[in-house]
Each structure stands twice: as C-alpha cells, then as structure tokens.
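Researcher: Last one for today. Full complex below.
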Amino acid sequence: MSAVQVAVTRKQLVGTSQKRMEDPKFVSGSGRYIDDIKLPGMLYAAFVRSPHAHARVLKIDASKALKQPGVKAVLTNDELKGIKNMPTVEDEPETVATPRPVLASKEVNYAGEAVALLLAESKYAAEDALELVEVEYEPLDPVHDLEAAMKAESAKVHDYAPSNLSYHFVYENGDVEGAFRQADEVVKVDLVNQRIHPLPLEPRGVIASYDSGNDLLTIWLSTQDPHGMRNSIADVLNVPAAKVRLIAPDVGGGFGCKGSMYPEDVAVSYASMHVGRPVKWVESRRENLLTTIHGRGQKQHAELAVRRDGRILGLKIKIVSDAGAYTTGLNVEIPKLTYKMGTGVYDIGAYMAEIFSIFTNEVPQEAYRGAGRPEAAYLIERSMNIVARKLRLDPVKIRQVNFIAKDKFPFRTPSGYTYDSGDYHGNLQKALEVSSYERLKAEQREARELGRLVGIGLVTWVEVCGFAPGFGQTAAITVTKTGDVIITAGGHPHGQGHATPLAQIVADELGVDLSKITVVHGDTSMLPWSSVTAGSRSAPLTGSAVLLSARKVRDKMSKIAAHKLGLKDAKLAFEGGKIFPNGDGGKGLTFEKVADLAYDGEKIPPGMEPTLFEYTAFSPANYTFPFGTHIAMVEVEKETGVVKILKYFATDDCGKLINPMVVEGQVHGGVVQGIGQAMIEEIVYDDNGQLLTSTLADYVIPSAESLVEIVWNRTETPTYANPLGVKGIGEAGTIAATPVIVNAVEDALSPYDVTVERMPLRSDYVRSLIKGSG
Amino acid sequence: MHYEGSFEVSASKEKVFSFLTDPKKVTTIFPDVENVKVIDENNFTLKAKVGISFIRGTLDVKLSLAEKKEPTYAKLKARGTGISSSVDLESTFNLEDAKGGGTLVKWASDARVSGLMASVGSRLMDTASEKYVKQIVGTMQKKLS
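Model: Here's the assembly. Have a good evening.
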C-alpha cells in the first residue's frame, strides 16, 4: 500500500481559555504543602538567630537548652562536620567572594542570620528552648546606607574584602561622548528603587528524612528548582547527588525567592542525617521577612542625550545595587540584567552602564519577580516621562519617536541582546484605542478645571525572559498501556497554573480529551534533570519540551497504528481519541488500542522498542522579549496626598497564547505586585541594621480595597525562539505596573512641577512633594 | 537612641558618687530588677523584666562600671540579652555642685536595641524608653534627696 496522506490535527484547545485543572484542589483546601506533611518520628527544628546586624560570635553555650524536656540536639557550625560553605562567586577582579558558613560561626552579618539549629520533639519545645542557647556577641558597626558604605572611611561588612564593593562593572557601546556632544539637552534622572520583599503566601519550609539502610536522603522543599536544589544541597553536604532525592510538593508562591538554596535547607538536611530521624522546619512570617531574600534595592541614575524633537541619542546609566551581606552570584547577575535591558523598547545607539554592587549588613538581595528587568523598565520608563515633561512632549509622542521599528527585528541592542520580534507601534496603538486614551485626556482636563489632581501614566515595557540559550528545560510524556497520558514537567508551578496549558498542548497533538491527561512535576526521581522555574520560562521552555515530546509520542504511535492497519510510512490523524488515516475515520484505531499495542513487542514494527515514553530537553536558540503598553489613571487628594487608582489598562504581547485566561491571571497578579511597590511596600532597616518591617502589620501589601479593575488586552507577535511561538508573561505585570503608577502620579502632580524620586507613594511622601513645591 | 538630661538632688557629690558606684545601691534605681549578683566591685549581673507592647520577658543583664573619677564622673555600661533581643546601654553621670546646695546630676544615655524588641517594638520604642528613663531618674532623685 502506498504512503498515506499526512493529516494535520485540527488545533482545538491551544489558544482557548480553559479552566485550570488544579483549582478544585486549591480552592477546596486540599493542597499539600510542606507544613501538611508529617512523617513518623519527625523532629522539629528551630534556629537561634542573631539579634545583631553585625557582630563577632564569641561563644555559643547550649548546655541549658539541652537540659530542657523534649530538646534532642543543638548544632552549631562546628558540629556540621565535613560540609562546605554556602555557594558564592569566584574571586575575580570585578567580584568579591564571601566565604559563608552554613551557620554563622565567627561573625554574623545581618540581623536574623542563623547561628545554631535546635532540634526538639515538638515545634513548641524547639521554639521555647531557643532562648536558653546563650550566644555571646561582640557588636560591630553595621553598614546600612549605600552611599556611606561606598566611602573609604566607612565601616566594612567583611574585614577580608578591600572595601564594601561586592561587584563593579563598566560597559560601553557606541559613540557615547559623541551622542552627548550632539545633544540639544542632557536630562539627568535620580531614582530610588526600594528594597521590597517577594512575600509568598507560604513561607519557606523543608523536611529532610535520611534512610540509613539505603543511604538515601529525601528532602521535601518549598522550592522553584527541585533538581538545582538537589544538586546544591548534595554539594554542600558533600554527598553524591544520586543519594539525594528532592521533592517539591505544592508550593504556595515563590516569586523568585524560592529559587535559591538557603542555609536552613542544608542545616535541616544535615540534622536528619545526624540524628537519623526526619526533621522539619517551617519559617515563621517574621523569619520570612527577616531572612528570606529581598529584591530590587537599587539607587539609579540616568543621563539622556536628547534632541529637541525627543529623539534619544545616547544613554548613560549608573546603578548602585544593595547586595546585602554576601555575594551570592544571583546578586551579581540581577543588576547586570538591569543594564542589559537598560535601553528598553528604544533604538538608542550609544549606551554606557556602570554597576556598583555594595555590601550592607542586611539580608542578601536576589531575584524578586522580574529580577533586574523591573528595575530596568523603571529607570528607562521614568526617564522617558521626565524627558517628555522637560521637552513638553506628549508621553506617547516621545515613545513613538524612539521605538525600535517593526522592520528592524531581530534587533541587536547595544547591550548585546537580540530582541526576537516586536511591533511596538502596533501594540501602543491598540493600547491607546482600548483605553480610549483621548477620552482619558479629556476627562483629565475636565477634572483639572475643577481643581482635581488627576494624572495619566503610560509605560511601554519590554523584558527578557525564557532564559536560554544553554539553559534549557525538560519534559517527558508517558502514554500508559491503558491509554492514559502523563506529562512529567520539568517546570514546577507555584501558583502559575502550568498544568492546564501543558495539557492543552498535548491534547491537541494527541487528539485526546483534557480529562485523559495528568500533569506531574517536582520530584528529582521523575526526570534526569530540570532547571529553575523562573524568568517567565514555563510556556516557552517547559511548553516547548512538552510539545516536542508529544510530537515524538505521536510519531511513534502513528507508526504502530500504521503497522497494525497495514499502511506504510504513515503519518496519521489524531482526533477525538482516535488515530486514523486522513479522511477515513472508519479504518482508524482508538488511542487506547494503539497504546496497548505499543507495550507488546510482537505487535509493533520490527526494530521498534516497546512502551510509550518520550523525553525532551529543550534548549532554545534565543531568549524571548515580550512587550506591552500599560496605561493608568490616578487621582491624588491634594489635602492628604492619598493616591487613588481610577483606571488601569494592560495591553501585552507575549507572542502566541496557549490559555488566554491563565495569561490574564498572570498579568493581574503581576500588576498587583507592581502596584504594591509603587504605592505601599518597603523594607525598612534602622541605622543599626534592625529590620523595622518584620510583621505584616509593618510590611503592608495591597488589598482589594486599594485596587481597581485591570482591563487586559493583547496583541500577538510570535517569536521564532521556540516552536510554540510563545514569549512568557509571568513577570510582565510587575515590570510595567510600578513605573506606570509613578508616571501617573507625577502627571497628577504636574501643576506643582515636581519629580517623584522615590517610592512607595505613601500619602506622607506625596503630601511632602505638594508642600515642598511651593 | 540618645537621651540626656539633668536633675538636682540634696545629697553631696561624694554621696551621689558613692551611690552610683556601689553595685548594690545603683541597681535599686532600675525597675523590676531581681537576682542582683556582684562579681567584683566593678562588675555585676541582674535580671530585668522589660516589656514593649506585647513583647515582654526577662533580660539577663551584665553591668560594668567602665570609668570612675571620684567624685565627679561615672560611666556605666550594660548589656542585656533575652527575648530574641539585645540591649546595649552606655550611661554617663557628671556630678557638679548645685547652686542651691546639693548636686546637679547631668546624665546621658545611649541605647542600642537589637532583635525582636527593635524590629517589632520600633513604633513604641521611644515612648517606652522615655518612660523607663524617667522612672530611673525619678527613683534616683528620690533615693538621694
């Protein structure tokens, strides 16, 4: 028989909004988080933490604590035998490595740093006995203020470092000096992008259980990166990775802060191996605010060489990043991302960036949703607003004058990225239409005539995501003998809703109903490797690995079905749970029948291996660069400085969409977090390095009462960087929302001609701008 | 945090100095103190009950008379630990003859509070500290008049 016509499966589900498969579990309280797991014989850990921001540790005496009923052990760093320090960077000319024991043994460098681990039969016994561990400290001068820390006479965080400089970097591309010479005007901008907290609803938590018979350590960790943490913990413990299995159960939010290994993860794992019993530790909210990484924390300076018509000829930026107490690696990479994305959506030929990352006696700063790109968007989008005001140009006009044109993609930026695809003019145009921008301006004019301070903010954002190349993601698909489909995803969800879009991809490829598909993830024993779920990588990378695995399954099943049907070289149609030659459903086989055949070595084509399991490690050729336009309308109450958001429009382009409802949900969450930074959130340390925002009464996040409906729309510009054409959307809202709110408030305050230099826009600060202007 | 002030007492400088430098006497000016132990003439320990808002408990305090210039000057250093907190206090007392007789006591205190009390209690710290200092000064005045 001749070759059968290739049939293309009708795409049914990708691109449509499908309800999230995991929601019934979460809304009915049936999720299983670290704290829901209880193992027989489990001990509870608590950590003795430094009250000082900077001090020498002179003596630790646990004798009184050990006499308490229920207390099993107290471990200091001296008792953690044979383990390595926490990871840091290589000592290089531009970076300073910081050797950091798992438990601070000689010096503490931020308030809350762990100095000892206490094990007890119950959580209460552990907490009660903490006070009885006597630690003698010699307080040292804490380093708190970034500018002061950079001066030669400043106290140093680390004696062994030449200064408080953790990392220094200079970059230049194009004729920067020439650009500034040609400029009609040079506009200088100084901004503070404050320290904030990722604040996942579920704090950190870890359970470790050592099986001495099998020499196997099983770790349950609230993490974004099961394989990465398995490898890192094994490395610091000095045990083979093969002897460690790491399981990430349901994770209640990560936002970047659960992408790294923490000292507690190692100490708890060691403790379980040490005492031969399972050990659990779940962070309190105070510990979460005090010891989980913070994000943002940059002082930003920009100088823009501008022509009278608004064209930006050159850009210089200077970033002073607050590294916190240690060089962790990520706190070097994040300010680099700020410089890499520094020119935003604009075609700026001459670019210079300088980064200083500074040690302070505060918790290390790492990735918070967007990680470096919200800071970049903030700096360039605030700068564009300030330039527009100076030149009396409309914020729309100045952006249109400077956009990278549609026909210039792929576009090589001065920092070395290649933007994959974009249509910035088209996206902005749609945003203006859906927000009825001209009507908003008319409303603003009317309000101003009545003396009301109403402002409109506009931001055109771009970010880099889908991190890549060389940093891929994995997935596997199993079709059981019974014809059920299991997607084993390398990417791990912590609220994003991966399962449904991944299942949609497979349902379309294999022509089966969503109900036939189960999505699993988060166990190092399931896949040879997976990489961190961060940087809006799930759709572009995990999604592509799933798609490619599904295509491999489909190819194999096609061959098995063709063999059974006596067809040759066949590629068959997969639809409605059947596999059949194109246009001839009657001769087809059910999906279950072909699955069953696949497990019988005598019923499959000669030379083919039985079973249906296909694995893909997808490593893309390029990053993806989603973009969009956000527009907000706000009102400032003159007498009190209170800011109220009146309207919010998000028009995003994340390439092709798998499930628009899930995309919109990601935008909503991101926008709320971005508004949080603009309006209310701030980590505050006193001059003594003490965290003053250590409860949720002090560290306040937005609630429904301070928000407004987010009107979401989209344009679709596919990427070539992956076979789905998707770009990633997880961080977009966070990136756009912060500058758009500040731009809107600055516009509202335009009668006073003030520049908003810092956040959050609490009423006292806004009122001070109004009062100070006159 | 820095606090300073002055007050007059009817006792002579010598008497005030002797009071300030006698561990058994000087510890009586602190409220809610118990278990005073004298290690030597310049070092002693005690337990002090303290509380800011809902953060209440006992601090183990080590005190030392860091400097003495009889009969005009004394410096007292204290470090208290407990309640997941640490309190460092350095107080100086300058003694001068008061115009109407007795002694003018000029005092200054620098306090550094760390840990739970500093972070959670920060909003109430100033009020609580002021109240505490006033109480100490009041007791001292009473005892030396």
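The radius of gyration of chain A is 28 Å. The mean pLDDT of chain A is 95.
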